[in-house]
Amino acid sequence: STNATPPLLSIDGGAHWQRVLWQNENVGAVQVAIDPQDGQVVYAVLWEQRQAPWENGVFTGPGSGLYKSTDGGATWQQLTTGLPTFAQGLGRIGLAISRSQPRILYATVDADAEHGGIYRSDDAGTSWRRVSNEPRTWGRGSDFAEIRPDPRDPEIVYVANTALYKSTDGGRTWRAFRGAPGGDDHHRIWINPLHPEVMLCATDQGAIVTQNGGATFSSWYNQPTAQFYHVITDDQFPYQVYGGQQESGSVAIASRGDHGAISYRDWQPVGVEEYGYVAPDPRDPEIVYGGKLTRFDRRTGVAVNVAPKPLRGDGYRVLRTQPVLFSPLDPSLLYLASERVWQTRDGGQHWEPISPDLTLES
């Protein structure tokens, strides 16, 4: 499926909708921005991309671009002057309008190394210029595309990426002011229009708030939020729920707490990577398998690598997410899938391939 839908317009509170901008079934709309001083001026970002079921299987096309309407979406014009083309690697665009000076626009533009970066327009999108190619602010552009100018000062700009970045010179230079460059994955920024020192940022781990312009932030540990790729339960009573959390390690949490509520006391990590499957041993719930592949003993807190082979290579190719599960008929039989299916009966000490190479020739 495509990543988004075409821009839709409703004039009756959402009872009926009409499509106002459309290319084909491979192109979706990922962002709409409305001029804060003129509601007839609308910008829309289209993005052509499809995700394959395997890791790094991404298909892009020439349909990505930035569009503008000056009549409330009745007609649209593509904005291209100064922006990269598909031949230059154009992909996802993230857009922001200056609240105080709406003719000033900022964009994060995903493209090749020579053309990607932070772009700025001072004429309401008619023309653009790249003001920075700092890769930390726009890299992984298909994942992060968030840029926000200060509501009162258009020369102050914020970008969300693996850290939060701030520019005080119109996007030319940047400094990180929150997060680890290795990847806390900040995705969305909200700035209070009346008190710009108050900002909220949505991250993989939850939400954080600053009331002093980023000097300090609240903790994301004060909210029971998490993102899971896969979850599974065991047969204990109360049963445990297992999963790998996005950017926050793994979790095993009881379905019922001993203190009147489920709290942090009922949680512990189980040594599984963020996108890994989890397979609790049906014979011993203190032993948990997961990822690509580890055996975790909850009694000792020790995780041991028990993969069929230690490294990727000829005859053993793994992707980000590798299915791992115990046989529902034989609790001693554990399966792991790489480019073939493997089985073990001794907790990963010895493995036997039980299928040929199942990948298709490209």
List the helices and strands and how they pair.
Elements (H helix, E strand, L loop, with lengths): L7 E2 L8 E2 L7 E8 L7 E10 L6 E3 L4 E5 L7 E3 L13 E5 L7 E5 L7 E5 L7 E4 L2 H4 L7 E4 L7 E4 L3 E4 L7 E4 L7 E6 L7 E5 L3 E4 L17 E6 L6 E6 L3 E6 L12 E2 L9 E3 L6 E4 L3 E4 L4 E4 L18 E3 L7 E4 L3 E4 L7 E2 L9
Antiparallel strand pairs: 1-2, 3-4, 4-5, 4-6, 6-7, 8-9, 9-10, 10-11, 12-13, 13-14, 14-15, 16-17, 17-18, 19-20, 20-21, 21-22, 23-24, 24-25, 25-26, 27-28, 28-29, 29-30
Description:
With 362 residues, the chain is mostly beta strands. Helices cover 1% and strands 36% of the residues. The protein is built from one helix and 30 strands. It has one helix at 135-138; strands spanning 8-9, 18-19, 27-34, 42-51, 58-60, 65-69, 77-79, 93-97, 105-109, 117-121, 129-132, 146-149, 157-160, 164-167, 175-178, 186-191, 199-203, 207-210, 228-233, 240-245, 249-254, 267-268, 278-280, 287-290, 294-297, 302-305, 324-326, 334-337, 341-344, 352-353. Strands 3, 4, 5, 6 and 7 form a five-stranded antiparallel beta sheet that branches. A four-stranded antiparallel beta sheet has the order 8-9-10-11. A hairpin with an 8-residue loop joins strand 1 and strand 2. The two termini are 21 Å apart. The mean pLDDT is 90.
Task: Summarize this entry quickly.
The chain is an all-beta fold and 362 residues long.
**In percent, how helical is the residue content?**
under 10%
Sequence stretches where pLDDT stays below 50 over 5 or more residues: none
Radius of gyration: 24 Å
Mean pLDDT: 90
Query: Largest beta sheet, briefly?
Result: 5 strands, antiparallel
Count of DSSP helices?
Answer: 1
Gap between N and C termini, in Å? 21 Å
Structural class comes to mainly beta
